[in-house]
Structure formats: structure tokens, C-alpha cells
Amino acid sequence: MKILERASQVLQEESKAVLDLIETLDHRFVEAVELILAAKGRVVCTGMGKSGHIARKISATLASTGTPALFLHPGEGVHGDLGMVTSDDVVLAFSNSGETSEVVSLLPSLRRIGAKLISVVGNQSSTLGRNSDVTLLVEVEKEACPLGLAPTTSTTAALALGDALAVCLLDQHQFTPENFAIFHPGGSLGCKLLLTVENIMHGEEDNPVIHRTATVKDALFVMTNKGLGAANVIDEEGNLVGLVTDGDIRRGLDSGSNFLVWPIEDMMTKAPRTITKDKLAAEALHMMEKHQPRPITVLPVVSHDGKSLGLVHITDLLRRGIV
Questions:
Q1: Are residues 146 and 249 in the same domain?
Q2: Are residues 145 and 32 in the same domain?
Q3: Host domain of residue 134
Q4: How many domains does the chain have?
Q5: Are residues 11 and 99 in the same domain?
Q6: In this structure, is residue 209 part of a structural domain?
Q7: Looking at residue 181, what is its pLDDT?
Q8: For range 246-257, the mean pLDDT
Q9: Strands (E), the chain
Q10: Per-residue pLDDT band at 190 (split at 50, 70, 90)
Q11: What is the pLDDT of residue 185?
């Protein structure tokens, strides 16, 4: 069989197995969701071999979507790691045959501990299926492996059912993007939803400010010293009245006059676009990129009563992963 034909066959067989799961969804799936929701502890996912990889992935998905979870290797479990399981926990066990010796060996101890057990198996009458509080059946016609040996279709279907379980729990927990970001502070979503302008702006001593009565030469010194290519222009009360940028300086050079002695008020941009420090950093980037008639690279930060607090530069946003 040609390579692309084989690949197409595998994808068709695995996608069919996932779609067939829809017809098997019944009250047992609802019971599994409700059992986990009622638990005071965590979801302890376990499985051996390829099923163990699926269990580990589902535990990570659950944990990142609002359902506390962890992975327990069944081989380590029978040698002491069962100590991490409590009576408040729900064990989610994956085994296509339902007879995996390492997983089945956990059953007596799990009953003694008092943890609830949900199994994801391909054989409902298996030892694991019969001894579970809730049994979720993932039965496939055949593996995509032409030898019928390597777990392929069965693990794909088990993974899909585990994801469905995690998403349903997410819904029931009313989990929000902000909640997700808290668990993913290092990711791009975390950057978008957690970082505010205050976290990134150049403020206090780093705020490039100059009084409106100063000259262009004075502004040039401030801009050079702060290295942001711009300066906030303020009045006697510290209110922001304008913004001067290195672009304004370059345009002054083109005038051919002694522009360095000009009052900064003659060169600055009056009433520039601003943002407050409590806004999301992602909003600042959006304002810069969508500014008309052309994008801008700096954005003054002001208090709600108009006082100059700092400056945000687009390079700082991009460096922190805001996209």
C-alpha cells in the first residue's frame, strides 16, 4: 500500500472511531462528570503503557482547565505511590483491555482507601470495568495498525473521550479565559490576560517627562537619556498635555531652521492617544497597531485624572510575548 493511501486509511479509521463514540454517550458519562464534580479531592489519572500516556495527558488537561488532577503510574502505585490517593479523590483509569495487570492490582487498595473509580475501557465486562463505580466504554472495531497490535485507534478514541470529559467539567466549573491564564502565566494567553500596562510601562524615574515651557533641545536630552525615542510633555500640575517623538525631531531637522530653540509646545503632538495603567498590555498593543493614519510605537500612560505616569514602548510589549 502506498504511503499516502495508508495515511488516509489510518486517519479515516481513527476519525470514525471518535465519531462512533457520540452514539455511545449515555447516562454513564453524565455520572462520571457528576462524580468528579462532587469529589472534594483530585482526579488521579492512571494507566499503563500507551494508555498511561493518554492518562498523563488527560490529567494535564484537567489540571489546566479547573479540575485538580495528577498522574499516578500504576507500577509505582503498587510500590508506595498509592499513598498520594485519598478517600476524597476520584481515580480515572485507562485500559483498553480492562485487564492490565498493573492497573487491576490497584483495585483492592483503592477500595480500602475509599476513592471512587471511573474506568475508560474497551471491554465493559473486564475486571476493571466490573469493579468501577462508573465505566466509560471506548470500544473500537480494530486498531489502525495493520498488525492489529499497536494501540492506535483505541488510544485516539480514549484521548477524545478524556478531552470531552475535561471540557464538560470546564463548563460546569464556569471556567473563564482569565482562570486559564492564571494556570498558564508563561504562555501567550497568560501574557494577554494577566499583564497590565503597569507591569510593562516605564514609570516613576524612568518616565521621560519634560515641562511644556522647555525647548526642543531640552526634550532631546531627556529622550536620549531615557532611550525611549519619546517624551511626555506636562504642565505645572503634572497633567499630560502632549507627546514629542524622535520622528518629530527628524521632521524639525528637515525644516532647515534652528529648531533646537523652539518651544516644545510648537513641535509636540497635542492631546495624544493615551492609556491608563490598569488596562491590559494587549489593549495597548492593539491601540498602537490600529492607530490611524499609521501605527505608533509609544503610548503615554496617564492616571484617570490625566496625570502623566509613564510611557509604553511597543518593543517592551513584543519582548514580553504580547501578540
A1: no
A2: yes
A3: 3-175
A4: 2
A5: yes
A6: yes
A7: 66
A8: 77
A9: 43-47, 69-72, 90-95, 116-121, 134-137, 202-203, 209-211, 230-234, 240-245, 269-270, 275-276, 298-302, 308-313
A10: low
A11: 66
